[in-house]
Amino acid sequence: MNFNKLEPVFKNIAIENYSYHLPDERIAKYPLENRDESKLLYFRNNKIDTLQFKQLPDILQKGDLLIFNDAKVIQARLAFIKESGAHIEIFCLEPHNPADYNLAFQMKNECEWKCLVGNLKKWKSGKLLKRLVIKNLNISIEATRAGKTINAEIIHFKWYLSEIQFNNTTITFGDLLEAIGSTPLPPYLNREAEEDDKIRYQTIYAKIKGSVAAPTAGLHFTENVFKSLGEKGIETASITLHVSAGTFRPVKSETIAGHEMHEEHFEISLETIDKLIHHEGRIIGVGTTTVRTLESLFRIGIKISNNEENPLFIDQWDGHFFNHQIDVKHSLLAIKNFMIQNRNGNKYKYSFSKMYF
Predict the structure, then answer these.
(1) What is the mean pLDDT of residues 103-118?
(2) Relative to the CA of 143, which of 35, 72, 126, 256 has its CA 20 to 30 Å away?
């Protein structure tokens, strides 16, 4: 197959060919009280059946391996009010300094994040200030514009005890987000975030902070569903992909090539790589975040095998147009060997740009 000839054809696909009307009344604004009673569409023998999600174990097979995205949604939206009365919303996308998610959430005095800023035209310069009480401490938090990237503003955050400016505190940036942030609900829900969304817009297996959107295919899993999966002999493993605001970003270009995707970061353990290598049955990604990650792993393994430059990064089109001489197993083995040689504990973080619409 000549991939070079396919590239211009693929990139010129018209966005309007994939547009459709979704009436607002067909969008559920709130989830069911019992998550696993949600509808489950099951395509079988050229027919679509409607089941309940709790029936999922019944239609899977013993020996299947389910891969979950265990990313945890952060309370990424921060609201500030200028002295002039202008409302400014800061949407934290990903850490900038330090760039590591775990370190950024543990910072206790200051840090910088890449952010989207609502009503930016009203905030030309100066500091935004917000006062709050956390753990019985009066805290002041300042936000300052510190630069910009192609798709985001770099915001410098500094926080301190209100009575004593610029001192070190025991309050982490993670504490601040939990205290004053709101859940970044998808725009199509057309409602404000509520306190209950901190729980219901989160999978029950979420562990690793950093996502600005839930891996929604996993929202319907419950402890009872997991129990049924185990009883049937269905295995599980996890990856972590921090969903970025690119998932909310509308496509405004006329063709696919005109739309630039946000970069996203994912992390996978050596244990999960081993499971993927040795598993003999079906491997099922729970949701598009997991599927994109698994597809990207294959390309990363090829880049490592070919000793390509910057093998841990997949650009927007890298996954579509390439020739490869190795199969999935050998690609994963290349990643495993790379992780062992460059190991950081039992994990290694990869970075890639979203490739799939």
Answers:
(1) 94
(2) 72
Q: Is residue 8 part of a domain?
A: yes
Instruction: Report the C-alpha gap between 105 and 205 in whole angstroms.
Output: 20
Q: Do 86 and 119 form a contact (C-beta atoms < 8 A)?
A: yes
Query: Where are the strands (E) in the chain, listed by range?
Result: 39-44, 47-52, 65-69, 71-73, 77-81, 87-97, 110-118, 127-134, 137-148, 153-161, 208-211, 235-242, 263-269, 283-285, 313-314, 347-353
- Let me know whether 160 and 66 are in one domain: no
201 & 173 share domain:
no
Range of the structural domain that residue 307 is part of: 3-72+197-353
Residue 81 and residue 52 in one domain: no
How many Å apart are CA 13 and CA 148, to the nearest integer?
31
- Determine the Cα–Cα distance for residues 75 and 73; give it in Å rounded to an integer: 7
CATH number of the domain within which 207 lies? 3.40.1780
**Residue 354 carries which DSSP code?**
-
Alpha helices in 100-172 (DSSP H): 101-106
Spatial distance between the Cα atoms of 280 and 336, rounded to a whole number of angstroms: 18
Q: pLDDT, tens digit, for every residue of 134-155?
A: 888 889 999 999 999 888 899 9
The pTM score is 0.86
Is 189 domain-assigned?
no
Residue 93 DSSP SS3: strand
Per-residue pLDDT tens for 45-57?
999 999 999 999 9
Q: Which two tokens stand for residue 8?
A: 């211009």
The answer to which of 9-23, 136-150, 219-233, 341-355 has the lowest mean pLDDT is 341-355
The distance of Cα 38 from the centroid of its chain, to the nearest Å, equals: 23
Which pLDDT belongs to residue 116? Answer: 92
Q: Count the Cβ atoms, other than its own, within 10 Å of residue 7.
A: 14
Sheet holding 65-69, edge to edge: 283-285, 65-69, 235-242, 263-269, 347-353, 313-314
